[in-house]
């Protein structure tokens, strides 16, 4: 872990992510409506909201899967909305998925090496002929994979096929593969979805360590409000594709618009009638 930390410290903090007035339309449906927020360098920022609020659409725009109808996304002088997914990855943005997207028949080591692909400088011919440069690069990637596996607690599983691992460990493999890309911004799509309470605690500690030890900015979509309130420096709340609140977790938790979005106006009004010391809060379970 120390080597991983030293390498990150050498790189320095990444740039801010600037999302400005992003709109996405699919035919007559507006999935995102002039959404704006900023993720400062080294921060953890959460996007929350009920199902259908536009969270996944937002992530797909940031990772290059969807093109915005209008608006812009800036990251380190790059305009992400004009880039294909592989180019977004090339400027230092890595993503995990709610539904695990790993090569299940391959080992953990092979999956992590896949994350190193964009950092490979040797050409196909050099690699095929096992030229010195290619051999040196291969050894460096192998060592880096071992370091990252140690950082997320996977070193003992490096030679295990992913399909043989418990679900919670598979989620850690996906996080490790994203880290293997050496990102400056990490997009985490429901990182604790489907996990047990113990597995959620481990993942939350890992996400905090990614920011604390590696200095990587993190943008996460998450339904578990306990995780959001514990990890996030700031929160953006979406509802029906619009931003309805933005601020620190304590403010968001008490925001009437957020309470209405999660609970419905009538239930929120009833909860607020319980007294000033018992404010309604968004639910902690998945909606």
UniProtKB/TrEMBL annotation:
Gene3D superfamilies: P-loop containing nucleotide triphosphate hydrolases (3.40.50.300). Residues 266-287 are annotated as: Disordered. It comes from the Bacteria. Keywords: ATP-binding, Nucleotide-binding, Transport. CDD domains: ABC_Mj1267_LivG_branched (cd03219). GO terms for molecular function: ATP binding; ATP hydrolysis activity. This is Branched-chain amino acid transport system ATP-binding protein.
């Amino acid at each position: 872990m120390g080597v991983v930390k030293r390498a990150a410290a050498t790189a320095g903090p990444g740039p801010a992510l600037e999302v400005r007035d992003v709109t996405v339309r699919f035919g007559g449906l507006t999935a995102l409506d002039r959404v704006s927020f900023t993720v400062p360098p080294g921060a953890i920022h959460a996007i929350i909201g009920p199902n259908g609020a536009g969270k996944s659409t937002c992530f797909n725009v940031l990772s290059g899967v969807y093109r915005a109808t209008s608006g812009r996304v800036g990251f380190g002088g790059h305009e992400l909305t004009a880039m294909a997914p592989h180019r977004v990855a090339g400027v230092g943005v890595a993503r995990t998925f709610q539904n695990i997207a790993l090569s299940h028949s391959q080992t953990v080591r092979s999956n992590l090496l896949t994350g190193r692909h964009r950092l490979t400088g040797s050409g196909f011919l050099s690699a095929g002929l096992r030229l010195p440069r290619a051999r040196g690069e291969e050894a460096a990637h192998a060592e880096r994979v071992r370091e990252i596996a140690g950082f997320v607690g996977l070193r003992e599983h490096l030679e295990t096929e992913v399909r043989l691992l418990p679900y919670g460990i598979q989620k850690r493999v996906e996080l490790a593969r994203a880290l293997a890309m050496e990102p400056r911004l990490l997009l985490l799509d429901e990182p604790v979805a489907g996990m047990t309470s113990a597995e959620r605690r481990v993942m939350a500690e890992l996400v905090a360590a990614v920011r604390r030890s590696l200095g990587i900015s993190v943008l996460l979509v998450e339904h578990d409000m306990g995780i959001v309130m514990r990890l996030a420096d700031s929160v953006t709340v979406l509802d029906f594709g619009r931003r309805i609140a933005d601020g620190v977790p304590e403010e968001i938790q008490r925001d009437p618009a957020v309470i209405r979005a999660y609970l419905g106006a009538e239930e929120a009004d009833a909860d607020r009638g319980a007294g000033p010391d018992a404010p309604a809060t968004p639910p902690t379970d998945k909606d």
